[in-house]
Amino acid sequence: MKKILEGEKTQISEMDIIPIENNLSDVLVKIYPPGTDLGKKWELTAKTADIGRDQDCDITINHNSVSRLHAQLSKNGNMRTLTDLQSTNGTLVNGESIISKTLTSGDWIKIGDTIFKYLTGTDVENAYHEEIYKMTIIDGLTNIYNKRYFMENIQRELARSSRHSRPLSLIMFDIDFFKKINDTYGHLAGDTILQDLSAVVKNRMRKDEILARYGGEEFAVILPESNLESAVNLAENIKSSIENHRFLFEKAPIPVTVSLGVACTSGEIDTEQEFIKMADQKLYQAKQEGRNRVCF
Fold first, then answer.
1. Which of 56, 63, 59, 55 is nearest to 71 (CA)?
2. Cα 94-202-148 angle, rounded to 5 deg
3. Are 57 and 50 in contact (CB under 8 A)?
4. Catalytic option among 6, 217, 218, 272
5. What is the pLDDT of residues 138-156, one digit of tens each?
6. Which of 38, 51, 180, 205 is the most buried (most CB within 10 A)?
7. Could you write out the DSSP letters of every residue in 240-274?
8. Residue 219 burial (CB < 10 Å; 0-12/13-18/19+)?
9. Catalytic annotation on 250?
């Protein structure tokens, strides 16, 4: 059993890891959202498996964005195909809406608010346990680091900064008026924005920098060996990249901006709570001053 920290408030999800028999070839693993069944696996031994909100489905997803009979997995020879059954909100594979698609190992499937990882092949047991490990450090929706990984690394980087009197910067940012986006376009649109935004920002990270989903629509970037000027430059780059990116949901453009707060230390800050509070205060200032800006 492993504990996972996620979300704006700490959520502890318990995962009962049940060994997979070596002769199994197809497995679905739930990787999002956090909850008591995070990490649950479905062994796909039958020719077909129905997915939907109805309790009679082989895989039941109890969420109002899921149709009663939403999608079906079918096997033909060694191939497994996922077919959308004319659902209301559609079925996504690797972020793209599908009608029918042949799956390959590692594909992720999004139905409603739930994301599954499809695993198959001779090493399915190892792949399953590797996926369970990734859940302890990776946010299932955005595919960036989660709050747990962030907290562990900021502790380590603060200790290194204090020991060597080297600069360490932290950027905290969140999406402006995110509740309005959810209320106007729906929570599935909000999920898409979170995913796309994470990809945009991730592409601007250097190898030693850590981007994490801190909670809800709030994100954090740890910048080892970066002074305040460098951190502010990156924050401005992130702000501009998001403002200029074309976010789409069901072909409808959604304007997105972020507010950012930047903090820097050269070893004088002792605790991660103090450091996070510094950056959060600057983030709050950015929001008070009109949003879509960087404060430091």
1. 59
2. 90
3. yes
4. 217
5. 999 999 999 999 999 999 9
6. 51
7. HHHHHS--EETTEE----EEEEEEEESS----HHH
8. buried
9. no
> Which residue stretches of the chain have pLDDT < 50?
1-23
Give the closest residue to 200 by CA, choosing from 279, 261, 143: 143
What the block records as the tokens of 67 is 């149709």
CA distances from residue 11 to 7, 130, 231 in whole angstroms, order as listed = 7, 21, 30
pLDDT in tens, 27-44: 999 999 988 789 999 999
The burial of 259, by beta-carbon neighbours within 10 Å (0-12 exposed, 13-18 middle, 19 or more buried), is given as: buried
One-letter amino acid of 217? E
At a CB cut-off of 8 Å and minimum separation 6, what does 67 contact? Answer: 52, 53, 85, 87, 88, 89
CA distance 236 to 292: 10
What are residue 42's DSSP bridge partners? Answer: 28
Query: In the prediction, which pLDDT does 24 show?
Result: 53
pLDDT of amino acid 78 = 87
Taking the chain, what is the end-to-end CA distance rounded to the nearest angstrom? 41
